[in-house]
């Protein structure tokens, strides 16, 4: 470190000298032709000046990180420059694009997540629908946002999940950054003993086994990137440590199983660099939320709404993006989180 400070100053003086020399040379040139395009000498001076300034900053940056003193990671090399996460003025990694795969993207929280994530044109969002032909809201959004691609998917079928993974691999040849398992069903929530076997099985199939099928089929695509992030939209009702005013029978069981599965996948996949979270999206006025209020009746749904804020799908999605998906790896991996980022008991 003692040698780095004076060396850094020396190199800066050197860069300054080159800049002056370059300016002198450029004033003697009236016009240049670069790749067939005429560039005036004054524009060329600007380009040269900016390049030299960046080179100097990169040198100082490299030195301040006291890595290899004379290795110039970004002198006119914008590919390695992009990787310089310690750049002093702005972090280019935050400006890079992210690819998302969102299930159940045709309505409710899923559609709102697709809108939220694809509003940044640098991101690519693959959104799924069981019936793309009738997914009008999603199709309308995709027409105006070419960074949204629609893929058919039914998470209750391994065949369908594998086909979706294959189609997505063609859309994202460089791999997938973030998998968001959002699709879910809530059937009749009556009493446990009155709840039919078929409904236990159907909700378990979609809400609990669905995320396993997804991670299994999409792992080769996630493996291609270092990001390797998975968010499973679960529910507070899946927590074994929260007292609820009513039982959620087959749905609650399936979400408790989904949490158990996320915990298991965290254990299995963390050593491979994966970051997983389970997310409670809040009490949301989607089709599912509205159906639930009808099933619960006015009195209980009134109690629920006065105890918990009722969110729109858009509010839930925005909060999930900001508090859970952003910095997932750094802050949130391995947790069961509420949409506002607070930790919930599994
Ligand atoms: N709303 C709430 O208050 C609340 C609270 C806690 C947790 N959640 C969870 O949040 C997630 C999203 O719920 P939401 O409120 O947005 O519900 P929603 O409005 O009913 O939407 C559910 C989405 O899941 C899709 N889906 C259902 N079964 C599927 C299957 N077998 N394969 C693929 N997609 C399927 C639906 O597609 P189709 O249009 O084809 O049916 C739809 O896109 C769910 O996992 C839910 O359990 C919601």
TrEMBL record:
Residues 1-22 form the signal peptide. The keyword Lyase does not apply. This is LAME_0A00122g1_1. Gene3D superfamilies: NAD(P)-binding Rossmann-like Domain. GO terms for molecular function: oxidoreductase activity, acting on the CH-OH group of donors, NAD or NADP as acceptor. It comes from Lachancea meyersii CBS 8951. It comes from the Eukaryota. Pfam families: adh_short. Keywords: Signal.
């Amino acid at each position: 470190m003692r040698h780095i400070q004076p060396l850094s100053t020396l190199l800066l003086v050197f860069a300054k000298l080159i800049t002056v020399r370059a300016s002198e040379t450029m004033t003697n040139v009236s016009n240049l032709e670069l790749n067939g395009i005429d560039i005036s000498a004054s524009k060329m001076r600007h380009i040269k000046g900016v390049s030299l300034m960046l080179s100097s900053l990169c040198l100082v940056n490299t030195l301040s990180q006291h890595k290899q003193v004379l290795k110039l990671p970004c002198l006119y090399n914008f590919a390695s420059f992009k990787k310089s996460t310690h750049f002093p003025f702005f972090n280019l990694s935050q400006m890079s694009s992210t690819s998302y795969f969102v299930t159940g993207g045709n309505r409710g929280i899923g559609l709102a997540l697709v809108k939220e994530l694809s509003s940044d044109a640098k991101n690519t969002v693959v959104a799924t629908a069981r019936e793309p032909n009738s997914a009008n809201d999603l199709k309308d959004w995709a027409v105006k946002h070419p960074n949204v691609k629609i893929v058919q998917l039914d998470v209750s079928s391994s065949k369908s999940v594998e086909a979706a993974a294959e189609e997505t691999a063609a859309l994202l040849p460089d791999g997938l950054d973030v998998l968001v398992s959002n699709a879910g069903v809530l059937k009749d929530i009556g009493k446990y003993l009155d709840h039919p076997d078929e409904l236990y099985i159907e909700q378990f199939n979609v809400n609990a086994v669905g995320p396993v099928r997804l991670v299994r089929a999409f792992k080769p695509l996630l493996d291609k990137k270092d990001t390797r992030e998975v968010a499973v939209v679960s529910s507070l009702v899946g927590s074994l440590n929260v007292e609820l005013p009513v039982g959620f029978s087959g749905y609650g069981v399936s979400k408790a199983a989904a949490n158990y599965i996320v915990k298991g996948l965290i254990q299995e996949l963390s050593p491979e660099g994966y970051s997983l979270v389970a997310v409670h999206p809040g009490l949301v006025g989607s089709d599912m939320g509205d159906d639930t209020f009808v099933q619960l009746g006015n009195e209980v749904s009134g109690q629920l709404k006065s105890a918990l804020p009722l969110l729109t799908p858009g509010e839930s999605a925005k909060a999930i993006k900001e508090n859970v998906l952003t910095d997932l790896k750094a802050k949130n991996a391995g947790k069961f989180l509420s949409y506002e980022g607070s930790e919930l008991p599994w």
